[in-house]
């Protein structure tokens, strides 16, 4: 089987870490982007870490191109989603959010996504059945119940990026998908979820990491005859949707 090359953003922790450690095959190559260094590099020689601050889009894209050059990219996964410091809490107050924080959030979640993909188009064209996968959120879907204005705006915008990219890249047979996730069980919680049999009220509101990995495996396994546009994936008992 042909060796695949992944470009994965946000690899140091959480979902990005899980994707990097569980999605590629052992002989695949991974370019992993994050600001902080992942803790698993010594055990994963196939992962080449690239340090980049996505809140500075222009510089981060320059760094990306310097390290990757003209290398073929089979799968680009933009897994980045920071939110307001008071998000998802009773203390959230849009009026008091600092403008600097909101600008940084927009640059990280959206601007770096657009510029990063733009810089990698020619790399993706070198691959057979290349895929672009954007990790979105149920906060980017119609009629969600969340109050987080700027986070929600970036996730709605991510879907717009995908819709238009799809039309730009249709002739190149490059798939563009968005995976809109609800609340996710993070590392350290995943084993507890499984041990509990996902039976408690708390765990039923969280998506197990392994379910997300399976959704990603489905997307990358499809041929270029199919177009997986969006997968919406809240937890079964997630009342936000």
From TrEMBL:
InterPro entries: NAD(P)-bd_dom_sf, SDR_fam. Signal peptide: none annotated. It comes from the Bacteria. CDD domains: SDR_c. Pfam families: adh_short (PF00106). GO terms for molecular function: oxidoreductase activity, acting on the CH-OH group of donors, NAD or NADP as acceptor. Belongs to the short-chain dehydrogenases/reductases (SDR) family. This is NAD(P)-dependent dehydrogenase, short-chain alcohol dehydrogenase family.
């Amino acid at each position: 089987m042909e060796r695949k090359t992944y470009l994965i953003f946000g690899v140091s922790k959480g979902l990005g870490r899980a994707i990097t450690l569980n999605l590629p095959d052992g002989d695949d190559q991974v370019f992993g982007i994050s600001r902080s260094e992942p803790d698993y590099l010594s055990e994963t020689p196939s992962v080449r870490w690239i340090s980049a601050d996505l809140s500075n889009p222009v510089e981060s894209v320059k760094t990306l191109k310097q390290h990757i050059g003209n290398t073929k990219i089979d799968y680009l996964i933009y897994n980045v989603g920071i939110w307001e410091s008071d998000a998802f809490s009773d203390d959230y107050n849009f009026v008091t959010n600092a403008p600097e924080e909101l600008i940084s959030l927009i640059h990280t979640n959206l601007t770096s996504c657009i510029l990063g993909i733009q810089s990698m188009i020619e790399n993706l064209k070198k691959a057979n059945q290349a895929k672009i996968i954007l990790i979105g959120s149920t906060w980017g879907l119609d009629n969600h119940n969340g109050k987080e204005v700027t986070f929600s705006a970036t996730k709605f915008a991510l879907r717009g990026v995908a819709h238009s990219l799809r039309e730009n890249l249709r002739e190149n047979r490059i798939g563009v998908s968005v995976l809109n996730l609800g609340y996710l069980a993070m590392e350290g919680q995943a084993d507890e979820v499984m041990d509990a049999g996902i039976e408690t009220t708390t765990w039923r509101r969280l998506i197990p990491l392994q379910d997300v990995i399976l959704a990603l495996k489905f997307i990358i396994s499809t041929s270029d005859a199919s177009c997986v546009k969006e997968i919406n994936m809240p937890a079964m008992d997630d009342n936000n949707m």
